[in-house]
Amino acid sequence: MAKEESLKAYKDRLDDALGNKFLRRAMDNFALAYRESRKNAFSGMDLKGMIQEVADIKANAIIHNEVLLETFTKKAEANGIQVHLAEKAEDANRIIAEIAKQTRTRQIVKSKSMTAEEIHLNRWLENEGLEVTETDLGEWIVQLRKEGPSHMVMPAIHLSRHQVADLFTTVTGTEQDAEIQQLVKVARKELREKFVTADMGITGANYLIAETGTIGIATNEGNARLVSTLPRVHVALAGIDKLLPTINDALSINRVLPKNATGQAITSYVTWITGPSECKTTKSGKREMHLVFLDNGRSKIARDPVFAQILQCVRCGACANVCPVYRMVGGHQLGHIYIGAIGLITTYFFHGREHARNLVQNCTNCGACKEVCAGGIDLPSLIKDVHAKIQDEEGHPLKSIMLGKVLKSRKLFHTLLRTAQKAQRPVTGGTPYLRHLPMVFSREHNFRALPAIAKTPFRDRFDTLNKTVESPAYKIALFSGCVQDFVYPEHLEAAMRGFEQANVRVSFPMDQSCCGLPAVSMGETSAARDVGLQNSEAFANVDVDYIVTLCASCASHLKHGMPRLVKDYAPEKVESFAQKVISYSQFMNDVVGIESCQGLGKKIAFHSPCHLCRGLGVKKAPRELIAKSGNDYVPTREEETCCGFGGSFSVNFPGVSREILTQKLDDVQSSGAELLVTECPGCVMQLRGGAVKQDRDIEVAHLSEILYPE
Q: Which H or E element spans position 429?
């Protein structure tokens, strides 16, 4: 009962955020501006190569972390830095509090540090009677508001200048203008005295260079330089994952970090510290510098073959910048301390599963975070892994257990679908939609019209549709996926017309079932593994050149996700299966090479399914096919933005799903397109159902339907 209430409370917070019009506008403006800024910042560069270099540097540093820690410590101590190692968050807090006590510190200034946020350092020091002031403008603002940062790089992005002006009015006791430059002047005036009178300065670190014992800090405001030089005591706090072998490694990361974080060529200040500064001395004539290394589970993570890669994170915040859910609700709802995709994962390890339990479900699995990750981390897969891990530890919910059991038995699954087709008749009224939601859905799911199950599934039509091809140009096996097999068989029928025209011989193994992705999304890894093995067995003895699927989600999972799950069980069989998998648009455009089709003469916008454009990296093929179809392709601003379906995501978080969908439909409607085309039945379900429910003048179709209409 407590878990259900906790999830409800979390959903209530999401709904409150969805109603915050300023937050939504600010997130929208930033998401669009970031997209262009990042593109321009990396223009003319080998972006993939740069990210791979960073990933390799960080992965190598993780492997050799113990050696780097030992080397750095020796060099740093030789440079006059006192090095401390904190195993847990509480240890780090005690160490820093003890340093403050020994140095008779009363006033502390801090520069922005997510590691300090991780261990709740400010709260600990304030409980010790110390005055702690954040000096990064955004961090100071959220500190005054007594809330955490909503973004790793831009802590106060969720606030308007008018909110900040009201805050500064309260702080200064003087009415403040909401003009941004004036607010900056107020902050500078208030903070200047803090810098001068502080006894201790605390900074984070972006890099720790083992070969020289050097700390590297990248900032835009320069406050870290003041914090590290003006007070008589400087304490740097950093996770052991920040260790790097050489300064060249740090420079390689620094070439990517600002471009990926904010679209800047470089941050305003890059500071290297190799020992105590002599800008100001203590009574004894010397300044003190301490470095507190934080483990807090990082050593254990580094040894984990699955999760070690999360330590490749460079804290750029890009995973939040492109996340459709973050764009809707902001960082306070999509994170605990760390926000965005990386926060969904690290929360479990740094702050416990009780804080991660709901967060890890709030992911559409769109893959946008993986595409922009500067550390090359497979964030979507790790989010699902954490979800499964939590369920393994706490017990699986009944609904996911039942789903797993049903999917593992193809015959049971298909029997239930056939039974549901008959049972749905009272709520369809002869339409292709359910007029009333089934009782398992609450009223909040009524934001889209749900399709009815087809009277006759594709598998029952295949023999009639399949024509004999004596000398085929290609031999393929068709993977239908459960939605197109039982809900949208017309997609596959249209494809069959095209295969016949292209002289393609088609096989349809009847033992195929769901691809297994829904089970992964629900945390049922074991069931997904069993389904994967069943599908690879179903296609094992079929002599074909390709396995074609019209569902981008199925294609991506079968090619990348499924092999990851079953590689230890049937590696050769699964590898052979995965290598043959190809999306419909790839096959028709790049393999068959069709030149033209019978067109509808309409203005067509394209919704690029997340698993197509990012999961498979297929971007040109569907657009080229639209151009060949005799229709006019109309580009849209949000073409590659998630539609909000995300399988179980739209069921678990209907409010967020609804808003993402509405944003997508608004974008399409503003383009003047008559028809919206996509290459995923789940996207068709979301977009078509939303257009119907919102009474939009937008028709939605699968790509195959415009290429080969009846």
A: none
Number of domains the chain contains: 4
DSSP letters, 637-687, are TTTTS--S-TTHHHHH-HHHHHHHHHHHHHHHHHHT-SEEEES-HHHHHHH
Q: Report the alpha-carbon distance of residue 563 to residue 381 in Å, rounded.
A: 13
Q: How many CB atoms lie within 10 A of CB 41?
A: 19
Residues 441 and 552 in one domain: yes
Tell me the residue range of the domain where 644 lies.
603-707
Task: Say yes or no: 387 and 250 in one domain.
Answer: no
Instruction: Give the Cα separation of 246 and 59 in Å (integer).
Output: 14
Q: Which residue, among 260, 254, 16, 241, has the nearest Cα to 114 in the 3D structure? A: 241
**689 CA to centre of own chain:** 25
Asked whether residue 644 is assigned to any structural domain, the reply reads: yes
Task: Please give the pLDDT value at position 601.
Answer: 80
Residue 477: inside a domain: yes
In this predicted structure, the answer to whether residue 456 has a pLDDT above a threshold of 60 is yes
CATH code where residue 632 lies:
3.40.50.1860
Residues 223, 96, single domain; the answer is yes
What tokens does 471 get?
């000398």
Where does a domain end: 573, 592, 611? 592
Distance CA 569, CA 557 (A): 17
> Which value, to the nearest 10 degrees, does the dihedral of the CA atoms of residues 484, 490, 491, 493 take?
110
**HEC string for 331-349:** CCCCECCCEHHHHHHHHHH
Task: Give the containing element (helix H, strand E) for 236.
Answer: strand 233-239
Is 587 in the same domain as 699?
A: no
Indicate the pLDDT class of residue 442, thresholds 50, 70 and 90: low
> In the listed set 592, 626, 645, which residue is the last one of a domain according to the structure?
592
Exposed e or buried b per residue across 170-206, where buried means at least 16 C-beta atoms within 10 angstroms of its C-beta: eeeeeebeeeeeebeebbeeebeebbeebbbbbbbbb
Rounded Cα distance between 208 and 493, Å, is 59
Interstrand relation of 207-209 and 214-219 (parallel, antiparallel or unpaired): antiparallel
What is the per-residue burial (b if ≥16 Cβ within 10 Å, else e) of 63-95?
eebeebbebbbebbeeeebebbebeebebbbeb
Pair 441, 557 in one domain = yes
Scan for tokens 């389904």, then name that residue.
531
Which residue bears the tokens 């970090």?
257
Cα–Cα distances (Å) from 328 to 136, 226, 359, 597, in that order, read 26, 36, 15, 39
Going by their DSSP bridges, the two strands 243-244 and 474-479 should be labelled as unpaired
pLDDT 10s digits, 360-377: 999 999 999 999 999 999
The CB density around residue 525, as the number of other CB atoms within 10 Å, is 20
DSSP state of 42: T
The rounded distance, in Å, linking the Cα atoms of 218 and 114 is 13
Lowest mean pLDDT among 205-219, 393-407, 413-427, 580-594: 413-427
β pairing state of 675-678 and 603-606: parallel
- Asked if residue 140 belongs to a domain, the reply is no
Is position 172 within any domain? no
Do residue 482 and residue 578 come from a single domain? yes
Mean pLDDT of the chain: 93
Residues 513 and 629 in one domain: no
Whether residue 68 is found in the same domain as residue 210: yes
pTM for the predicted model, two decimal places: 0.93
* Contact criterion met (CB below 8 Å) for 34 and 340: no
- At 232 the three-state DSSP class reads coil
Tokens describing residue 389: 């891990």
Q: What integer pLDDT is reported at residue 5 of this predicted model? A: 43
Tell me the CB-side half-sphere exposure of residue 506, using CA atoms within 13 A: 26
